[in-house]
């Protein structure tokens, strides 16, 4: 499935039900079964000053990540997308699934604040291209516009 189709499907989910648990659960599943060579796709949500695991597909993951820690915490603290071609070369990478070799993390915003991240892992080294970054940032922007966090 291409990113235009994934973006259209994301819009449909949000129109049908904007509640964050419903939207993020279905988007995790959509990404996991539509993009090739993934082993984890999901979300961490900022709660009480740290990231807490949210809806995802894949093996059970670490529950809490402090801002500035790992790829997710670094993305949240610096408010930027991070593409990691080789997680073993990323200082402080948190290995939740030993199968992961590359990763992309995109921050999610609400009211000008980072309120969570989208995290996607692959067993392939260098899995995430510029096209993936653009496509996933587009999906993140759609989520930010339409989601209900409460
Ligand atoms: N690798 C992430 C932790 C989350 S798991 O990949 C699901 C990190 O370094 O922040």
Please give a structural write-up:
The protein is of the alpha+beta class. The chain has one domain (3-146): Beta-Lactamase (2-Layer Sandwich). The chain has 4 helices and 6 strands. The protein has helices at 3-16, 20-34, 70-78, 130-146, and strands at residues 40-47, 50-58, 64-65, 82-84, 102-110, 113-122. A 6-stranded antiparallel beta sheet has the order 3-2-1-6-5-4, with helices on both faces. Helix 1 runs antiparallel to helix 2 and helix 1 (3-16) runs parallel beside helix 4. The chain is globular and about 40 Å long. The chain starts with a helix and ends with a helix. Methionine sulfoxide (SME) binds at residues 40, 61-62, 65, 70-73, 93-94, 96, 100, 103, 119, 121.
Give me the side-by-side strand order of the main sheet. 3-2-1-6-5-4
Number of domains: 1
Look at the structure and name the CATH superfamily. GAF domain
Shape: globular
Report the average pLDDT across residues.
97
Largest sheet: 6 strands, antiparallel
Feature tags:
150 residues, alpha+beta, Beta-Lactamase
A few lines on this structure:
The chain is built from 4 helices and 6 strands. With 150 residues, it is an alpha+beta fold.
Write the layout of secondary structure elements.
Blueprint: H1 3-16, H2 20-34, E1 40-47, E2 50-58, E3 64-65, H3 70-78, E4 82-84, E5 102-110, E6 113-122, H4 130-146
Antiparallel strand pairs: 1-2, 1-6, 2-3, 4-5, 5-6
Helix pairs in contact: 1-2, 1-4
This protein binds methionine sulfoxide.
Methionine sulfoxide is lined by residues 40, 61-62, 65, 70-73, 93-94, 96, 100, 103, 119, 121.
